[in-house]
Design a protein that fits this description.
Elements: H1 3-29, H2 35-57, H3 62-87, H4 94-114, H5 118-140, H6 148-173, H7 183-222, H8 232-245, E1 254-260, H9 263-270, H10 272-288, E2 295-300, E3 303-308, H11 313-329, E4 331-333, E5 338-340, E6 343-349, H12 356-372, E7 378-380
Parallel strand pairs: 6-7
Antiparallel strand pairs: 1-3, 1-6, 2-3, 4-5
Helix pairs in contact: 1-2, 1-7, 2-3, 3-4, 3-5, 4-5, 5-6, 6-7, 9-10
């Protein structure tokens, strides 16, 4: 592939990605983090490569097209790196990127004025390699928790960025080539690396977005979106191994079930937004009373459960009492009123012969007793379930 064809392929590829992203956003999927930044990066790169191809073809004077084209390409790669940093949580990436881009453009233009062919190519290689290394660093952020796809993209981008930058470094060190590494081979490797970076960057970005969407869907299957604690399914998944451990000798594991008293009056009197504020406040209050190893989950409505590993019945009752007192002591500020809360608790421990059904039934029975005894209290489950009274 000759240089003109490669540049044209880069231009059309980046512009095609821009068009795809535009229609994707128009279909109602806009609003994903960093997508606008990444879209602008592809637009800048596509326009820059296209201008380079036009300049090489003689349609536009090369002296005018070439500097503008390279500035656009530099800006595009810098913005692509910024999009990766934005996705990694660094929202203020422009503070470092804009000065770096300004210095890179100034250095390139100076080299172009001194030597429009040799130094220009060296400066372009080093600038592009530097920005692509920044992109690789953003992809490598959070390496320990990163997926295999993200790790592959970080490594591949690093290797290709080094190849791009190596052309400029080797030309400076050995203008005639370095052994078998002739200038022609360097140029071919440089062109191939740029083409692969365009492919890896484009498909990698889209695949990472897809991967994150799947991870978020999987998280929502087991998490309650309002309170950001495990839902019923997620809680019972976490409970399962502790049920198995209860069949072996060792420290007991406790389960606490609690329910907000008369929550319906809050929704009816102050509206559902106030109810949401109350639930968020409740979760924060409860978490402050728990250890990192304890698990709080939302079973249904305003009924919650707490798994207390390595906790006996008396200690679990003390934890529940501490939470009850904390909930009662704090008033929740909403837009319409200051709301007082109380909650009722049922406490039990996992027994060797328990199933999730019998365990929850025993805790719910203790909670029912607490409600019947006047609410705002803690009840410990009886050794044997009381028979259900017929109404």
């Amino acid at each position: 592939m000759d240089a003109t064809t490669m540049v044209l392929a880069l231009a059309l590829g980046n512009l095609a990605l821009c068009a795809t992203l535009f229609f994707f956003e128009q279909s109602g999927h806009a609003g994903r983090p960093a997508v606008p930044t990444w879209g602008w990066s592809r637009l800048y790169q596509g326009a820059g490569w296209l201008l380079l191809a036009i300049g090489a073809a003689g349609v536009v004077p090369e002296g005018l097209a070439l500097p503008i084209a390279y500035v656009l390409v530099f800006a595009g790669v810098a913005w692509e790196s910024g999009a990766a940093w934005e996705r990694a949580g660094r929202l203020r990436w422009r503070r470092a990127t804009l000065p770096a881009l300004g210095l890179a453009v100034a250095a390139f233009l100076l080299c172009w004025l001194i030597d429009p062919i040799g130094l220009r190519a060296v400066a372009a290689s080093l600038v592009l390699g530097g920005f692509y290394l920044s992109l690789a660093a953003a992809l490598a952020r959070g390496w320990a928790a990163a997926s295999m796809l993200q790790r592959f993209l970080a490594l591949a981008t690093t290797v290709l960025a080094v190849v791009v930058g190596a052309r400029g470094a080797l030309v400076l060190l050995a203008p005639a080539g370095w052994g078998w590494m002739t200038s022609d081979i360097l140029r071919q490797l440089h062109s191939g690396a740029l083409y692969l970076l365009a492919l890896v960057g484009g498909f990698g970005w889209l695949l990472l977005g897809r991967e994150r969407e799947q991870a978020e869907l999987a998280r929502l299957e087991v998490n309650d979106p309002l309170t950001d604690v495990p839902n019923r399914r997620g809680f019972f998944q976490a409970l399962a191994p502790w049920m198995a451990l209860a069949r072996r000798p060792g420290q007991p594991t406790a389960l606490v079930v609690f329910d907000l008293d008369q929550f319906k009056r809050i929704n009816d009197g102050y509206g559902h937004p106030a109810g949401d504020v109350v639930l968020a406040h409740l979760i924060n209050t409860c978490k402050r009373q728990l250890r990192d190893s304890d698990l709080l989950g939302r079973l249904v409505g305003v009924e919650f459960a707490i798994l207390l590993p390595r906790t006996n019945l008396d200690d679990a009752a003390m934890v529940a009492e501490r939470m009850r007192a904390a909930i009662e002591a704090e008033r929740v500020k909403t837009e319409r009123a200051m709301i007082s809360l109380t909650a009722s608790f049922g406490v039990t421990t996992i027994r060797p012969d328990d199933s999730t059904v019998t365990l929850l039934a025993r805790a719910d029975e203790a909670l029912r007793v607490a409600k019947k005894a006047g609410r705002n209290r803690v009840e410990v489950a009886a050794a044997v379930l009381a028979p259900v009274e017929e109404e």
